[in-house]
Amino acid sequence: MTDRPLKQIHLAAHFPGVNNTTVWSDPAAGSHIEFSSFRHLAQTAERGKFDFFFLAEGLRLRETKGLIHDLDVVGRPESITVLNALAAVTERLGLAATVNATFNEPYELARRFASLDHLSGGRAAWNVVTSSDAFTGENFRRGGYLDRADRYTRAAESVQLAREFWDAGEEPVRHSGPQFEVEGRLSLPRPPQGHPVVIQAGDSDEGREFAAATADVVFSRHSTLADGQAFHADVKRRLAAYGRKPDELKIMPGATFVLGDTDAEADERAREIRRAQVSPQTAIAFLEQVWGVDLSDHDPDGPLPAVDPDPDSGLVQGRVRHADPVAVAERWRAVAAEKKLTSRELVIELTGRQSFIGAPATVAAEIDRFVQSDAADGFILVPHLTPGGLDEFVDRVVPLLQERGVFRTDYTGPTLRDHLGLPVPGLR
């Protein structure tokens, strides 16, 4: 036991996109393109007093065997454009966009996020991602790609240079670094937050170090209390080397949830949802991502493929392939043999995020347990339905968290930094 005060839980809402989370077959599933869907989910999150609304984004539609990947959304608007529109129909909710640091210039990134921060009254956040595949690079003048070792070097300098522009406002910036040689000035005053909030997702050692040096929020993925605690402790430990305190970085894993009137009802509903999320075709596509061979004739309700993966395959484009697919396949075979799982059942198990399943009181207690146990500082919730998938959580779980005294009953300030308890950076 500890005498420390209860930690306050941070919550964000993820608008589903390029993933296998959405249950498209559900009659309640709506558009991922129309503005009304973005507005509904964002306004629901704000009604629940969430910290921010989060949009993921890729720079090219993924392909399998030369065809667009079944779970990619064709026609989805660009994220910052959507968030600028949402700034007009929300008042306090933070607005977070995923924008790639590999194929965008720091000046343009600084200008776009400063614009969103001004238009929203200090609610902008940048989820910094990188890319190392030539397939995505073909959409850009430079073409090609950065070596994996250079991705975080460029990302770190991109954030550093963007912050130099934000600090300088309309004053000149002179920057000389390994990736960028810049002399210019931003066309906007300093953003209301000083620096828009920086979010980072990455579990590698270099990703963790980048987060400790640069990020305000980490979007992680850990499915057990012990794994979450280990990640939380490791990243927070690294902060001191950069002169930062533990509460200056919030760790918020992605998580799904399924509610029912009873725990048993929620368990049954969760099983149905997972099978709907991972159709036979989805299971095959997931296996092809590792094996790199055409598995069209593979039985998803049978054992894993007997053939070994092709490490040099170009069958799947735009999706991350594992560094050693042969070793991954061997690990999966061991899990499938131990648990007696078919191919589809294994994919269902492997692709599941941290999930909170149960009656509202059960889910509230479990979320609170993870946060008070330092397995997380909060969660980025990924509903399985768009746009109404968050409604039930806001109506049934948020009031219970508020009763526990671990979640706000109202916003205490206008900016996203206020919601996250982060200071406004001083001028450097």
Provide an overview of this structure.
There is one protein chain. With 428 residues, this protein is an alpha/beta fold. It has helices spanning 35-47, 79-87, 106-120, 134-137, 148-168, 205-214, 225-238, 263-277, 280-291, 325-339, 343-350, 360-372, 391-396, 398-403, 416-420; strands spanning 10-15, 52-55, 63-64, 67-68, 94-100, 124-129, 172-176, 181-185, 197-200, 217-218, 250-251, 254-259, 316-317, 354-358, 378-381. Strands 11-10-9-6-5-2-1-15-12-14 form a ten-stranded parallel beta sheet, with helices on both faces. The model has no long low-confidence stretch (mean pLDDT 89).
**Structural class by sheet pairing and helices:** alpha/beta
Note the total helix count.
15
List low-pLDDT spans.
none
Mean pLDDT: 89
Kindly summarize this structure in a few lines:
The chain is of the alpha/beta class. It has 15 helices and 15 strands.
